[in-house]
Predict the structure.
Amino acid sequence: MEIGGHGAIVAGGASGLGAATARALAKAGAKVAVLDVNMDVAREIASETGGAAVECDVTSPEGAEAAIEAAAEAVGPARILVNCAGIGPAERIVGRKGPQPLDHYARCININVIGSFNMMRLVAHRMTALDPLDDDGERGLIVNTSSVAAYDGQVGQAAYSSSKGAIASLTLPAARELARFGIRVVAIAPGVFETPMLRGLLQPAQEALERATPFPPRLGKPEEYASFVLSILGNKMLNGEVVRLDGALRLAHE
């Protein structure tokens, strides 16, 4: 897809993978709406990229609809949606204080899965009304964020891994369903990247994850995730696929 001049939405665009993606899309010529609950940082990214900052709780049907409408008014109708909003709690199913509180698990599923689906359904609906961009009939691209934890979930990652597994499983049926509208759906499953979520871990844990990555033997950079989003945009045959972006990392059990 030609990126220049088209509207793009990055959900969770105020930090980490989302912020890097907003920057990369803007540099490639897209008009980017940075959607986030953290408006102070979202405004900084929007100012840097020449886009718009829009407050958005991705789990709210009404709130997300209003945010998408505001984004369309600010940068034009979205041809691109990148879902980066998410949380990564670490908690055992049965811990020292007893079973994991159910609301902790539900919150992770609500933000990571329902939030991504909510944005996808609302943006895809608007995309269907747009004119095709080319002879293939392409109208837009949706990129969701899974994780290697969907496949190699470690001890303490039951909630996070199952949420990212749901994103992976959502990819093919969504791509098949939206194909008739010329809308592609792809998921990226990052390995261990330099994000605020990772920086919440203790330093020894971060260093162990670095050592576990075969090559390159380091943490991934958010810019590398963003670069891959651009690669997906440029290749229409990438559709309905979950792609690991992990330096050949396979997580140990704990």
